[in-house]
Amino acid sequence: MLTRRKFIIVLGGVTLAGLAGCGGEEKEVAACETRPFRDDDECAVCGMFIAGFPGPKAQACLRDGRLLTFCSTSDMFVWLLQPDSVPQLRQAYVHDMGATGWERPSDDAFIPAQVAVYVTEQPLMGAMGPTLASFGSEEAAQAFMAEHEGRLLSYEQIDVQVLNDLARAHIKRTM
Q1: For the segment 40-55, what is each residue's pLDDT rounded down to a tens digit?
Q2: What's the gap between Cα 6 and its chain centre?
Q3: Where are the extended beta strands (E) located within the chain?
């Protein structure tokens, strides 16, 4: 028999279960896709206008639906290596330099940054000076290194020390 006390407990439990379900819903976010760079796009790190500069560039889709643009792969990693950036990141993209030219990378040549391989200590300049050349395959990166030299790194190997080494190399070249 359902007593008044049992009825109140059941009713309270159903109400709490309903309320608990409301808090777990997440807003649907638009698809995470790259887009062509526009003339007014600014780098999320340095604020520089991006269009017209050579070398690989990057874009990052955030969990809140925003798209960040970067003038170079190096600036993308500067942003990614900040402690509060990774939780915001949905997907990062870089130019596949094995599929596009250095002087004017095609906006159709983006690949996920996590699957790319990178060549550091190479002589070609990006928008902000030395940068990490990004490739969709190790074979393409090796072919690039046969012509330009450099050192091959995976996404996981890029850290603050790698970026500092790039900056030091640029200072040495300009002195």
Answers
A1: 999 999 999 998 899 9
A2: 55
A3: 58-62, 67-70, 89-95, 110-112, 117-120, 125-126, 129-130, 133-135, 151-154
